[in-house]
Specification:
Chain lengths: 219, 367
């Protein structure tokens, strides 16, 4: 068999699989989506809060950012294992792992976004008598928003990819197709999982990129 | 009234103090200019007044009240603050920028937007045109006008201005200085104005405080500063040529000739010729029905073909505003190459004429 025939045969197999299993694929895609969305909502809430807090006190800023950086370097399989004592296996463990991975870009971008604000802007705000809480919500966060959004976008795209690993501890999602496909030597199955994860990541990237643009005060 | 009492600020234990035992009293409605070389402690002094910096020792009294006992937020809401870098909020439009302090003070919406328009008018920017624009769409001069408008929004009795016009080109700077003087004449704020430009200090100040290495060297009116400098440092800072410096002090309205002949563009040349013959100034200003200056006729133009003033008049760029100093007027004369300049009010309507001879007269009076 030539390479070309192999390729065509593979594609036919892939489409055949997608056609037969479309219900399951839709279900897993939705599961994957919820998993990532839940983790992101938690990561955004924690990440922005931490980013804001460390922007007030430089001595702890770099240690905190370094910790989140170290978290990111933990291999995902290991991360899931480490979390089992705290979250058991299943959805919660998956969410916790994804949340931890998502923290760094959000914390770091919130911090740098706030720190990058022109000194004169903050000085005039304080000098005119604005309260710190007002400055935070009306000046700092809006000005840092484009940078924060870029961090969120990085986290989401990354989270969708890493989310595959959650299937390993029974948190569901498209990773199931990949793990089962490997076990059963079913390549159309592995491909389907990979392709749908990529499509989801690309769509998320486009949507968030567009939102980032819409929200930016620079335009 | 603002009173600084033995005010001292040490940033580090080892370096000499940035502000060193400074005592100063600024009367209500007066403009006090802090002037001195870079690093002499002007900004530090100013920031201690609105408590962006806390003094190491000494006191600041505002209308008799110890400012260290006041709530800093309340204190600052009552003090307008303008800095050289302006610090407009780039994500807000011009109206929102100006509305900052009134919003903090929880004014009703309609009152805020009415005030915004009023302030835009005051600083010479068309509200319709500027309200909804972003700071980045404005020129440097326009941004600084917004900075001034924003600081005046809630009508604070005190204004702190740290080299507000320092980043502007000389023409825009002179323009804004004059406008600010015109506004100040009406609103009578107590102003602390920081500059390192002695000419600006002479022009803007009712009182000048010369500082050196954190210490007050001399505190006087511009006239006394020029006539009796306290020491060599002041002499050097003020620079020689007392008469020329005085041109910064005298405003055009003091030597203005308010009775130049005027004519309309539809007037006939023969009438204008008759006016020119009678005129000491040797010019006839052509104005429209609203007294707005549109051009002028001097004897040389009479040689041109035509029947009406409109045919022979020429436009003149040589005008200055009412608040301008003789120095401004002289600059315009030098750049237009003419021995006169037409003085106009804020709506470009004729007020009169200032001539080179008039200015020379002032200089000769000094001798
Ligand atoms: N935050 C600060 N920390 C340490 N030193 C400062 C600080 N701010 C100003 N200084 C020092 O205080 C002196 C006076 O500064 P400043 O008031 O800004 O001068 P000016 O406004 O007259 O140019 C300078 O020597 C400056 O280096
Ligand atoms: Mg300064």
């Amino acid at each position: 068999m030539s390479l070309w025939e192999n390729f065509v045969g593979g594609l036919t197999g892939l489409f055949d699989f997608m056609g037969r299993r479309s219900d399951q694929i839709a279900e897993l895609t939705l599961e994957h989506f919820w998993l990532v969305l839940t983790a992101m909502i938690i990561a955004i809430a924690i990440g922005i809060t931490v980013g804001v807090l460390i922007s007030y006190w430089d001595p702890i800023a770099y240690p905190v950012i370094n910790v989140t950086q170290v978290i990111m370097t933990i291999p995902s399989i290991a991360m899931i294992a480490i979390l089992i004592p705290f979250f058991g296996i299943g959805f919660n463990n998956g969410v916790a792992a994804l949340t931890l991975y998502a923290l760094l870009p959000i914390v770091r971008n919130t911090y740098t976004g706030i720190r990058a604000i022109e000194k004169a802007v903050l000085e005039s705000a304080i000098g005119m008598g604005m309260k710190e809480s007002v400055i935070l919500f009306r000046i700092k966060l809006p000005l840092a928003l484009p940078v924060i959004m870029a961090g969120i976008r990085t986290s989401v795209v990354m989270g969708i990819g890493i989310g595959a690993i959650a299937a390993y501890i029974g948190a569901g999602g498209l990773g199931i197709l990949i793990f089962n496909g490997i076990n059963w030597v079913n390549y159309p199955m592995v491909w389907t999982g990979a392709i749908f994860i990529s499509i989801m990541a690309i769509i998320a990237d486009l949507v968030l990129g567009w939102t980032e643009n819409k929200m930016s005060w620079r335009t | 009234m603002i009173r600084l009492e033995n005010l001292t600020k040490k940033f580090t234990p080892t370096d000499p103090p940035a502000v060193d035992d400074l005592s100063l009293e600024i009367k209500e409605g007066e403009t006090c200019v802090l002037v001195g070389p870079s690093g002499c402690g002007k900004t530090t002094t100013m920031k201690m007044i609105n408590r962006l910096i806390e003094p190491t020792s000494g006191k600041i009294y505002i209308n008799g009240e110890d400012s260290s006992k006041m709530d800093p937020i309340k204190l600052r809401l009552g003090i307008g603050y303008v800095i050289q870098e302006i610090g407009l909020f780039p994500h807000m439009n011009i109206a929102e920028n100006i509305a900052t302090v009134p919003r903090e003070l929880k004014w009703p919406k309609e009152k805020i937007w009415k005030r915004v328009d009023e302030l835009l008018e005051t600083v010479g920017l068309e509200p319709e045109h500027f309200r909804n624009r972003k700071p980045k769409d404005l020129s440097g001069g326009q941004r600084q006008r917004i900075g001034v408008a924003r600081s005046m929004a809630a009508d604070p009795p005190i204004m702190l201005m740290d080299e507000p016009f320092g980043a502007l080109d000389p023409i825009t700077r002179a323009h804004l200085q004059n406008e600010f003087l015109r506004i100040q004449k009406r609103i009578k704020k107590t102003i602390i104005f920081v500059t390192h430009d002695i000419d600006e200090a002479i022009k803007m100040g009712d009182k000048i405080a010369i500082m050196r290495k954190g210490k007050l060297v001399q505190y006087d009116s511009p006239e006394d500063m020029l006539s009796t400098p306290a020491n060599e440092f002041v002499v050097n800072l003020v620079g020689g040529n007392y008469s020329i410096k005085r041109l910064h002090l005298i405003r055009v309205d003091e030597i203005i000739d308010r009775s130049p002949f005027t004519a309309s563009p539809e007037g006939t040349i023969s009438e204008t010729k008759a006016l020119l013959d009678k005129s000491k100034l040797g010019l006839v200003v052509i104005t429209d029905e609203k007294k707005k200056v549109i051009g002028l006729v001097i004897p040389a133009y009479l040689k041109k073909e035509g029947e009406y003033n409109a045919d022979i008049m020429e436009e003149t760029g040589a005008t200055v505003g009412l608040g301008s100093t003789l120095n401004d007027a002289l600059s315009v004369m030098l750049s237009s190459g003419q021995g006169y300049v037409i003085v106009v009010d804020e709506k470009e309507r004729i007020e009169g004429v200032v001539t080179l001879n008039g200015i020379m007269g002032v200089l000769q009076d000094d001798d």
